[in-house]
Amino acid sequence: MANVSVFNMEGKEVGSIELNDAVFGVEVNEHLVHMAVLQQLANKRQGTQKAKTRSEVSGGGRKPWRQKGTGHARQGSTRSPQWKGGGVVFAPTPRDYSFKLNKKEKRAALKSALTSRVNESKLIVVDDLKLDEVKTKKMAGALKALNAEKALIVLNEDNDNVALSARNIPTVKVSYINTINVYDILKYNTLVLSKDAVAAIEEVYA
Predict the structure, then answer these.
(1) Are the CB atoms for 94 and 48 separated by under 8 Å?
(2) What is the pLDDT at residue 1?
């Protein structure tokens, strides 16, 4: 089992914790991690792009000039793609980009992402993530002390003071154990977990 240090919000080491290898020590499957990120980005796409083909553009029913004898190239319609105002060749149409990943694949991808953060020493466990008031300055100071200024903070339960204090920091995102995903884990340089969030993640995914 991996053993990582536990810090307080002043950045001082106050102990250590053993991480469950079933969650934080699996073999990293890069293909599944890639597919999980791809799925999340694909599922976000609206897919509402649309352009008209030559059959949908109005006008152009009359042949612009006779077939032969004008010196121009032959033309059948002013709505052809080579004309200004003509249709678009292979025009995009509305479509659904989303695709499905199996539950086991999603879990394996998430475990791989968590393991990669442990392997790269980018996982910080905090003894107790709490603030007495909503104060962005205090939150920014705590993250600086933890050397985690671009971080994904994962909490076990609703903590409005922490969430609201971190909301105005552009390089920080607060998430909960039921909303963590592979894309966010990889997007931010550091993964900051509260001690009870580690226990909850191990309980859910082990």
Answers:
(1) yes
(2) 67
